[in-house]
């Protein structure tokens, strides 16, 4: 069962928890995700199944969109609502304009230090494992990009926001750093991911929907393969071309002579390979997603 499935992750579960549940529901071992969400966070969690787990390499640098709430008045050790306070709790009220002015300083390419409770590795060990043992966590700042950061509303000590960010950006760090700059402390109170790459909430299903899908094929919940990786052109291969590319042999695709990579389909639905241009009109499979002995759905 090869496909991409978008889950609306509930709060309280890790991304790996969701993967394990989907493995049991689909009775399939080969299930992975295209970028973690913190346990507190909800929203779009793309999963890949079967041979489509090989597509993960094309989503490493995917753009993400979020909405959430920043709580001003105290910081926490995890930079979110699940952590312990690390500064005195203040009763604070900020004007929306004040928060907007501060948010403007975080738009664009900025230097950001990841949270100590994160999956970033220090000498091969995830930072959160060191932080849980109260060991020193020294993470180096990295360049990230916040493409959009809008303060939707602000009332009392809370501000609601929408953000569109490049891969590797931590909204927890944004909240923490804003509180630090304002001198009052802050943390991320809630976070919902509304989009990852080409996937949005419109594509998402709950775990309950998937589990209670009696009478339905699980593949009905999958994203149509033609929607995947929209930046790549698609080519529908005839039987001879499909067999050659599935066997790892180069093929000529004259209609896509200027493309660097293309999606190769057999029929309308079977994505069988991602091919890379070697030279001119000659392409070679970078990854094969469907073996030559597998029947093609037309």
How would you describe this protein?
The structure is a single chain. This protein has three domains: 3-60 and 198-223, Pseudouridine synthase, CATH 3.30.2350; 64-195, Pseudouridine synthase (2-Layer Sandwich); 227-288, PUA domain (Archaeosine Trna-guanine Transglycosylase, Chain: A, domain 4), CATH 2.30.130.10. It is elongated, with a radius of gyration of 22 Å. Strands 1, 2, 3, 4, 5, 8, 9, 10, 11 and 12 form a ten-stranded mixed sheet that branches. It has a five-stranded mixed sheet with strand order 13-15-16-17-14, covered by helices on one side. It has a two-stranded antiparallel sheet with strand order 6-7. Helix content is 17%, strand content 34%. Mean pLDDT is 90; it is low at 292-298. It is an alpha+beta fold. The chain has helices spanning 15-26, 96-104, 127-132, 171-182, 207-211, 239-246; strands at 3-9, 31-33, 42-49, 64-72, 108-112, 121-122, 125-126, 142-155, 158-165, 186-196, 199-200, 204-205, 234-236, 251-252, 261-266, 270-279, 282-288.
Core attributes:
298 residues, alpha+beta, Pseudouridine synthase, Archaeosine Trna-guanine Transglycosylase, Chain: A, domain 4, 10-stranded mixed β-sheet, 5-stranded mixed β-sheet, elongated
Q: SSE layout and pairings?
A:
Layout: E1 3-9, H1 15-26, E2 31-33, E3 42-49, E4 64-72, H2 96-104, E5 108-112, E6 121-122, E7 125-126, H3 127-132, E8 142-155, E9 158-165, H4 171-182, E10 186-196, E11 199-200, E12 204-205, H5 207-211, E13 234-236, H6 239-246, E14 251-252, E15 261-266, E16 270-279, E17 282-288
Parallel strand pairs: 1-12, 3-10, 13-15
Antiparallel strand pairs: 1-3, 2-3, 4-9, 4-10, 5-8, 6-7, 8-9, 10-11, 14-17, 15-16, 16-17
């Amino acid at each position: 069962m090869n496909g991409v499935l978008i889950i609306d992750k509930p709060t309280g579960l890790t991304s790996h928890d969701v993967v394990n549940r989907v493995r049991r529901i689909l009775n399939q071992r080969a299930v992975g995700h295209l970028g973690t969400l913190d346990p507190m966070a909800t929203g779009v969690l793309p999963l890949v199944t079967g041979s489509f787990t090989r597509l993960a390499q094309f989503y490493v640098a995917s753009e993400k969109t979020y909405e959430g709430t920043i709580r001003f008045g105290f910081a926490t050790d995890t930079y979110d609502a699940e952590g312990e306070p690390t500064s005195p709790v203040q009763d604070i009220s900020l004007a929306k304009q004040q928060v907007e002015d501060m948010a403007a300083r975080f738009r664009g390419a900025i230097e950001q230090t990841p949270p100590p409770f994160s999956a970033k590795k220090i000498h091969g060990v995830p930072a959160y494992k060191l932080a849980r043992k109260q060991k020193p966590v020294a993470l180096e700042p990295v360049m990230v990009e916040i493409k959009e950061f809008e303060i939707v509303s602000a009332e009392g000590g809370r501000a609601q926001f929408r953000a569109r960010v490049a891969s590797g950006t931590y909204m927890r760090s944004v909240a923490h750093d804003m509180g630090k700059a304002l001198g009052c402390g802050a943390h991320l109170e809630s976070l919902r991911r509304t989009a990852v790459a080409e996937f949005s909430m419109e594509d998402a299903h709950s775990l309950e929907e998937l589990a209670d899908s009696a009478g339905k094929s699980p593949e009905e919940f999958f994203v149509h393969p033609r929607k995947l990786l929209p930046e790549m052109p698609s080519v529908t291969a005839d039987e001879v071309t499909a067999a050659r590319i599935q066997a790892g042999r180069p093929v000529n695709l004259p209609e896509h002579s200027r493309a660097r990579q293309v999606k190769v389909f057999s029929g309308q639905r079977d994505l069988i390979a991602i091919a890379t241009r070697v030279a001119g009109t000659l392409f070679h499979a970078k990854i094969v997603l469907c073996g030559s002995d597998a029947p093609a759905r037309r």
